[in-house]
Amino acid sequence: MTGLKLSNVRKTYGVLEVIKDVSLEVKPKEFVVFVGPSGCGKSTLLRMIAGLEKITAGDLEIGGKRMNEVEPSKRGIAMVFQSYALYPHLTVRENMGFALRFAGVPKNEIIKQVDAAAQTLELGALMDRRPGELSGGQRQRVAIGRAIVRKPEVFLFDEPLSNLDAELRVHMRIELARLHKSLAATVIYVTHDQVEAMTLADKIVVMRNGLISQVGSPLDVYDNPDNMFVAGFIGSPKINFIKGVVDGVSKSGLTVVLPGYQDAKVTFATKNSSVPVGDSVTVGLRPQHFNTTGKMKFKLNVELVEHLGGESFVYAGNGSGDLITVATQEGRGLKSGQKFDAHIDPAKALLFDANGQRVR
Amino acid sequence: MAQSSGKTTLTGWLFTGPALMLLTFFMVYPILSSLWMSLQVGKGMNFSFGGFANMWRLTQDAVFQKALLNTLTLLVVQVPIMIALAMLLAVALNDPSLKGRALFRTAIFLPCVTSLVAYSVLFKSMFAYDGVVNRFLEALHILDQPIPWLSDTFWAKVLIILAITWRWTGYNMIFFLAALQNIEPSIYEAARIDGIPRWAQFQKITLPALIPVVLFTTVTSTIGTLQLFDEVNNITLGGPANATMTLSLYIYQLSFKFMPSFGYAATVSYVIVVLVMILSFFQFVAARDRRRP
Ligand SMILES: Nc1ncnc2c1ncn2[C@@H]1O[C@H](COP(=O)(O)OP(=O)(O)OP(=O)(O)O)[C@@H](O)[C@H]1O
Ligand SMILES: [Mg+2]
């Protein structure tokens, strides 16, 4: 099986640098997801791996071989596009077998492979239709089938589910996860939907402005974000950021004053407390980590409650500062204007320095 | 929507009324009137009902038959060349790696909006026996003696074909360009990843998307060439020896030259109408067969 390696890869359009020095290693059979806000360069990076965009500088290796100048069709990859990109005038069967026809595969072998892929994706009844006669979900399955038939070493997906409705998206997500297991192939998957990223990935690559911000397993980037950007991007609802100032540094940790909350003082246990007294810091609190017993307490008033059925999101504030989002199971009775005390264990808090880098 | 009361019907008629009146006056009336006229015989303003006499005259009229043959020859040779050329140019000008595409597109489109008379005069002088075209070809040693573009029956037809192709290729190219730009670029990217050779991409992705445009441009160009008048009247005047006489030019000459023979001219017009109908019908049938194999 085949892995993939990017070393100091760059992409420039004229003077605009879109990918700035990206290095990444993808292990064989790994499901890697690129996430990041719109325009951060996810698609560009994927298309460079596919060979659809030239690599301005750096090296791309697939299966240990340098692939920078190799034709897309000879890289052992297959790609699934957001817009499906099916051949509109060919039937589903022809779409899936088209590549094999030009790869010198004998006719009966093509039929066998296309039928096998059709079976896996339950496309049997649609084989003689044209793409125009299929629903969005069916088209996406055909596009995946077209990729499977070529038996690539690496699958590339560029936001394959974003044109589907919410229900179908969940369904296809599960199918994709199953497919990855059964094919045992390497997958690189681009999305800006962090739920897709969290649920599908073995390894998440969070990108920002053409740079990799952090690489790690889904739970790793959730629990231990390297910086404020990753903390803010991963997790839903979004993490709460509260401004504070370092008041004291001791062996037990950093003591931080929260000016927005009556100068409340909290001590966070840290090993390396390199932040000097007087520096501003940001405290990150996940909405899910609030409870009724934690040592850190915020006296708030409810502004708005979103009931999702099982869980409720409470948006509460104290008049100064931003609203704090709290995810709670016991929010049914809450109404806006009501008093609301949010507790949290300081051990759960994330601490960032003035540059947004993680302190703790 | 079942309740189309008298009042809403009236409103509908009031809205469409002016347009219908104009259409009746300027379209329906002339069509019927010319049909009636085609049954009249006589010269100048002296008409009398002749029944099918004009049609009989068609079968005896050598000039008409020559014009019909010329028109069909021009049609069969010129339309396919022009459509193929328009498609080729569109595909070439749609290639994103080509520099200065906008300039080329404009340049190729420009002929169909230039003044007809100006370009005819220019063509006439360029293709004169001692004109710039012959001089140029001689200078390149492609020819050892000049081509008699305007005085030879064969070369005159070639000249007319060159002229209409020059004038209308860019116009038709625009339709092909529009169709090409409707093809999603990621389909070609998928084909590159699939390793589909360029010719197969053209055959299976590009060409099918262009078929409706081929039909459209063929029908409109066929109708245009059947009515060909401007170039032959301005460049060759139907000559030499009626070698470039077309049906439309003949109609014009029958009506406005010598003793006007309006009835017979109307009959010849109806020959064009019937030809347009027959050819368009066949082209649509052919297109339908292609779409559903
Ligand atoms: N051909 C191009 N010429 C110039 N700039 C480009 C070109 N293609 C992309 N870019 C720029 O590169 C940046 C990254 O684009 P890219 O499509 O990779 O973003 P993305 O992360 O996939 O975003 P999205 O989530 O919206 O798809 C963008 O700022 C975009 O404007
Ligand atoms: Mg993208």
Named CATH topology of chain B? MetI-like fold
At the fourth CATH level, what is the homologous superfamily of chain B?
MetI-like
What integer value in Å does the Rg of chain A equal? 25 Å
Question: Low-confidence segments of chain A, ≥5 residues, pLDDT <50?
Answer: none
Number of helical elements of chain B: 12
Termini separation of chain A comes to 38 Å
The CA-CA distance between the termini of chain B, in Å, is 39 Å
Give me the side-by-side strand order of the main sheet of chain B.
1-2
Number of domains of chain B: 1
Short description:
The complex is a heterodimer of chains A (360) and B (293). Chain A has 360 residues and is an alpha+beta fold.
What can you see in these coordinates?
The complex is a heterodimer of chains A (360) and B (293). Chain A is of the alpha+beta class. Chain A has 2 domains: 4-233, 3-Layer(aba) Sandwich (Rossmann fold); 241-352, OB fold (Dihydrolipoamide Acetyltransferase, E2P), CATH 2.40.50. Chain A contains 8 helices and 20 strands. Chain A has helices at residues 42-50, 92-101, 107-120, 136-149, 166-183, 194-200, 218-223, 228-233; strands at residues 4-13, 16-26, 31-35, 57-62, 65-66, 77-80, 154-158, 186-190, 203-208, 211-216, 240-250, 253-258, 264-268, 280-285, 290-291, 296-307, 312-317, 324-328, 339-344, 350-352. In chain A, the strands form 4 sheets. A 6-stranded mixed β-sheet of chain A has the order 6-7-8-3-9-10, with helices on both faces. In chain A, strands 13-12-11-14-20 form a 5-stranded antiparallel β-sheet. In chain A, a hairpin with a 4-residue loop joins strand 16 and strand 17 (312-317). Chain A is elongated. Chain B is mainly α. Chain B has one domain (55-291): MetI-like (MetI-like fold, Orthogonal Bundle), CATH 1.10.3720.10. Helix content of chain B is 73%, strand content 1%. Chain B is built from 12 helices and 2 strands. Chain B has helices at residues 6-37, 53-60, 62-93, 101-109, 116-126, 132-139, 153-181, 185-194, 198-226, 230-236, 247-256, 262-291; strands spanning 40-41, 48-49. In chain B, strand 1 and strand 2 (48-49) form a beta hairpin. In chain B, helix 7 crosses helix 9 (198-226) and helix 9 (198-226) runs antiparallel to helix 12. The model of chain B has no long low-confidence stretch (mean pLDDT 86). The interface between A and B is medium-sized, with 24 and 17 residues. The site of magnesium ion has 2 residues of chain A, from helix 1. Magnesium ion is lined by residues 42-43 of chain A.
